[in-house]
């Protein structure tokens, strides 16, 4: 199981989708699960809103298939009651009375148990169902587009959340099964960050929190990385405000631009800002590397993200060692 988190705005849904595609290479079956109710996966793949069912959303070269599920706490509860108690009608009655919303509002840990429970059930599921517990796993991997880093620890530590609700009984047993998968050494929590101070700080905090919970940290995906436009010495000079105006003016003049001298001064300011940004990114990258988690870098996509772009990002991940 691959759990993908990151500060809002870092592109974690895009990274989760690209990761699912990378894991589906060479004929793999991968389930991509969304738990925040934003329909971000549907938007990303240009499909209608996803229902509460697993459906194929993308085919990957080599025979791989990506399925998607928009997890919903209410629907998960209905399924839970039907599977374990044969009480679907009772659950529907509770829904009409608003009891489900009431329960998950006053006990948010219950909502997290239901959402994570659906994803972890998909991890454990085998071909042939309960009658063949030794059968092949239904999915080769499950990727969860999880809540942001500010909530990831509480979201994943559902066992302690439920302890205050039920120390024994079916809800506690369900939470224990969820935690068995989340704590498994085959589950990893991946963090998505930009080369900016706030996302990087949240990533470092999240890694520390997840590690303290006894969960396994995976990789840090540095998203929207930009290549430097200047070589080393020129970069340092530009950052210090020592850009060669004469060289800039000569280049502008050779390009056929008038007022090359004035333009060179303006361009020098832009070059200096770029250089300072690059040096900041290098420092932030070093801080992220200091967490000990492997770094995977994905480029900034100027034209937005579509299926072709996702294929390119998945290929970049594979080139950096991301695979089943």
UniProtKB/TrEMBL annotation:
Domain ArsA/GET3 Anion-transporting ATPase-like: 3-173
InterPro entries hit by this protein: ArsA/GET3_ATPase-like, ATPase_ArsA/GET3, P-loop_NTPase
SUPFAM superfamilies reported for this sequence: P-loop containing nucleoside triphosphate hydrolases
GO-annotated molecular function: ATP binding; ATP hydrolysis activity
Protein name, UniProt field: Anion-transporting ATPase, ArsA/GET3 family
Lineage: Bacteria, Bacillati, Actinomycetota, Actinomycetes, Streptosporangiales
């Amino acid at each position: 199981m691959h759990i993908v988190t990151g500060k809002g705005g870092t592109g974690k849904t895009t990274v989760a989708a690209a990761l699912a595609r990378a894991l589906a290479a060479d004929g793999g079956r991968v389930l991509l699960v969304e738990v925040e109710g934003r329909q971000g996966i549907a938007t990303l793949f240009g499909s209608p809103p996803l229902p509460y069912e697993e459906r194929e959303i993308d085919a990957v070269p080599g025979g791989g298939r990506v399925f998607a599920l928009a997890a919903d706490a209410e629907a998960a509860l209905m399924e839970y009651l039907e599977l374990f108690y044969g009480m679907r009608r009772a659950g529907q009655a509770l829904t009409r009375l608003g009891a489900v919303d009431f329960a998950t509002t006053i006990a948010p840990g219950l909502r997290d148990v239901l959402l994570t429970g659906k994803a972890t059930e998909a991890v454990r599921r085998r071909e042939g169902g309960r009658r063949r517990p030794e059968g092949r796993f239904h999915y080769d991997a499950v990727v969860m587009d999880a809540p942001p880093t500010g909530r990831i620890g509480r979201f994943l530590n559902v066992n302690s959340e439920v302890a205050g609700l039920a120390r024994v009984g079916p809800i506690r047993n369900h939470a224990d099964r969820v935690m068995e998968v989340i704590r498994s050494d085959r589950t990893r929590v991946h963090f998505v960050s930009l080369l900016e101070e706030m996302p990087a700080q949240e990533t470092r905090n999240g890694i520390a929190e997840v590690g303290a919970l006894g969960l396994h940290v995976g990789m840090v995906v540095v998203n929207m990385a930009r290549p430097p436009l200047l070589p080393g010495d020129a970069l340092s000079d530009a950052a210090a405000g020592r850009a060669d105006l004469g060289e800039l003016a000569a280049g502008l003049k050779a390009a056929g631009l008038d007022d090359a001298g004035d333009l060179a001064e303006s361009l020098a300011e832009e070059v200096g800002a770029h250089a300072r940004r690059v040096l900041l990114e290098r420092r932030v990258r070093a801080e992220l590397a200091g967490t000990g988690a492997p770094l995977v870098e994905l480029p900034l996509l100027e034209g937005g993200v579509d299926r072709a772009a996702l294929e390119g990002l998945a290929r970049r991940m594979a080139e950096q060692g991301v695979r089943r």
